Amino acid sequence: MAGEQKIYLWKFLRKVFQAMFCLNDTMRYYLCPSKTDMRKGINSLIGVVHQQMGRDVRNGDVFIFIGSSRKLMKLLHAEDGGMVMYVKRLEAGRFRLPEYNAESRTYNMEWRDLVLMVEGIKEDPEQRLRRLKAERNEYVV
């Protein structure tokens, strides 16, 4: 493959992956109010959404599940072409849950809350919960 074709292919793949993995602030986020058995896969989590949360997974909302140890999180999301499940496992620290609303029996979640939870950022941006820093290698194309 010639050099220009490789560059074009790389740019194309980058756009495809950016389009594939897109969660953003225009979506609604629902955190499952009960602890979830994290051995469950996509089909079982769809059942949890229907039975425990009373929601439909096909409407494009993002459903968040956290295990009892609060070290593992799964996100379930319907995209064009099928269901997607994202998994985040913490090597250090635990996920901090947002405030529980007893009146509505849910956690009020927004994109911002999900980012803060995943990154371990507290309300004060100078304070962070413990997280393992990933070693990243620079790749040159």
Q: Any overview of this molecule?
A:
The chain has helices spanning 3-20, 42-51, 111-119; strands at residues 29-31, 62-66, 72-79, 82-89, 100-101, 106-109. The protein has a domain at 24-119. Strands 4-3-2-1-6-5 form a 6-stranded mixed β-sheet. It is globular. By secondary structure, the protein is α+β, with helices and mostly antiparallel strands. The chain contains 3 helices and 6 strands.
Would you kindly provide a brief summary of this structure?
By secondary structure, the chain is of the alpha+beta class. The protein is 26% helix and 21% strand. It has a 6-stranded mixed sheet.
Strand content: 15-25%
- What radius of gyration results from the CA coordinates? 18 Å
Distance between the first and last residues' Cα: 14 Å
Structural class: alpha+beta
Q: Give the neighbour order of strands across the main sheet.
A: 4-3-2-1-6-5
Specify the number of helices: 3
Instruction: Report on the biggest sheet.
Output: 6 strands, mixed
**Order of helical and strand elements:** HEHEEEEEH
C-alpha geometry:
globular
Uncertain segments of ≥5 residues (pLDDT<50)?
none
- The percentage helix is 25-40%
Number of strands: 6
As an assembly, this protein is single chain
**Overall average residue pLDDT:** 79
Attribute tags:
single chain, 141 residues, alpha+beta, 6-stranded mixed sheet, 3 helices, globular
